[in-house]
Design brief:
The complex is a heterodimer of chains A (107) and B (236). Chain A has 107 residues and is an alpha+beta fold. Chain A is built from three helices and five strands. Chain A has one domain. In chain A, β2 and β3 form a beta hairpin. In chain B, β2 and β3 form a beta hairpin. Chain B folds into two domains: 75 residues, no CATH class; 154 residues, Rossmann fold (3-Layer(aba) Sandwich), CATH 3.40.50.720. Helix content of chain B is 39%, strand content 22%. Classes of the chains: A alpha+beta (107), B alpha/beta (236). Chains A and B meet through α1, β1 and β5 of A and α1 and β5 of B.
Chain lengths: 107, 236
């Protein structure tokens, strides 16, 4: 199993252990971006996470959204880039932009 | 994503199927596609979506598609890349765990039972068949790399012969320029391989970074394998 695949195995293990879990996936990228489309990150209700959707630039913001979404908020498409105000806060230093889909693992 | 989709996805990946998950971005409904058929999920797939998923699986590339005004994300999951390491030698002890971290499913092949031991290679799949038998059984494909490290002709050469006739994306063999020249002679004269076939063998193996220790040589080999995968010279 690759490191990438461990994300989904871990998500399933967390779920089986009774945790709430959210998944974030890079669904599109423009310009330079550290992780390709398809990269994933899983978060559980203790805030633990595995995987990555960037080089560490936006993980904090993605995890914060994931915590809301696993508690019942609807799935959300997050966009990060230099033209986006959010990006100045969380900082995509590479100058690229990416879209990340965040969803809960549900019944 | 429904938990049932994740469970089925993980099962399919363990069975080494080529699969995709199609997700509608407006509401998060999704479906698992195994080969070319929908299996589980709360998103019904029409022909256009199934075709898009099959196409993404074939290209092994996650992609976002717009179909009839709706936006979908198709994520693909292919079986891991494989690395067949011939020779349970010191360099292999460094290379196997490094390649595993880089995402390779590593099989270590060495018919010499004193070398290929669990103590020397914890957590690595060991195969103690002769390399030609082993590689034939393992069915090399476009997602396979072959690394020959014994510099013992009777072990390396049969492996290289099979590798050169396969679709493996990388073939490398340890040995000095002199050893490599002798090896090519054997492969041409005894195995009947053409120069075009043996040109695929990287020898001396690895990127030239002045590597000295086994771990450094393993680094140069892994770097060369990744180069063959991501930046193949003939694709430039």
């Amino acid at each position: 199993m690759t490191a990438e695949n461990d994300v989904l195995d871990t998500a399933e293990t967390w779920r089986d252990a009774g945790h709430k879990v959210a998944l974030a996936s890079v669904v599109s990228t423009w310009g330079s971006s550290p992780r390709p489309s398809g990269s994933q990150l899983a978060v559980n209700d203790t805030g633990a996470f595995v995987g990555s959707v960037s080089g560490g630039c936006i993980e904090g913001a993605v995890i914060a959204e994931a915590m809301d979404i696993m508690q019942g908020a609807p799935p959300k498409l997050l966009e990060f880039g230099v033209s986006n105000e959010m990006a100045w806060e969380v900082g995509l230093a590479c100058g690229g932009s990416i879209a990340v889909f965040v969803e809960a693992l549900n019944d | 994503m429904q938990a049932a989709v994740l469970t089925a996805l993980n099962e399919a990946r363990r069975a080494k199927h080529r699969v995709a998950v199609v997700t509608r971005l407006s509401d998060g409904t999704s479906a698992l596609v195994v080969e070319d058929a929908q299996t589980v999920g709360d998103l019904p797939l029409d022909t256009a979506l199934l075709d898009a998923a099959a196409n993404a699986i074939r290209k092994d590339k996650a992609q976002r598609v717009e179909i009839e005004g709706a936006s979908y994300f198709i994520n693909t999951f292919n079986p891991p890349l494989r690395m067949m390491v011939i020779g349970a030698v010191h360099i292999a002890q460094a290379l196997a765990p490094m390649a595993k971290i880089a995402g390779f499913d590593v099989t270590l092949i060495d018919p010499r039972s004193a070398w290929a031991t669990e103590e020397r290679f914890p957590d690595v799949t060991l195969n103690r068949d002769w390399p030609d038998d082993a590689l034939t059984t393992l069915a090399l494909d476009r997602r396979s790399a072959v690394v020959a490290l014994t510099h013992d002709p009777k072990i390396d050469e049969p492996a290289l012969e099979i590798a050169c006739r396969s679709e493996a994306f990388y073939i490398g063999a340890l040995g000095s320029r002199k050893t490599h020249a002798a090896r090519l002679d054997l492969l041409h004269n005894e195995a009947g391989l053409s120069e075009a076939e043996t040109n695929r063998i990287s020898g001396p193996i690895g990127l030239d970074i002045g590597a000295v220790s086994p771990a450094e040589i393993a680094t140069s080999i892994l770097a060369e394998v990744i180069q063959a995968l991501r930046a193949p010279k003939d694709a430039a």
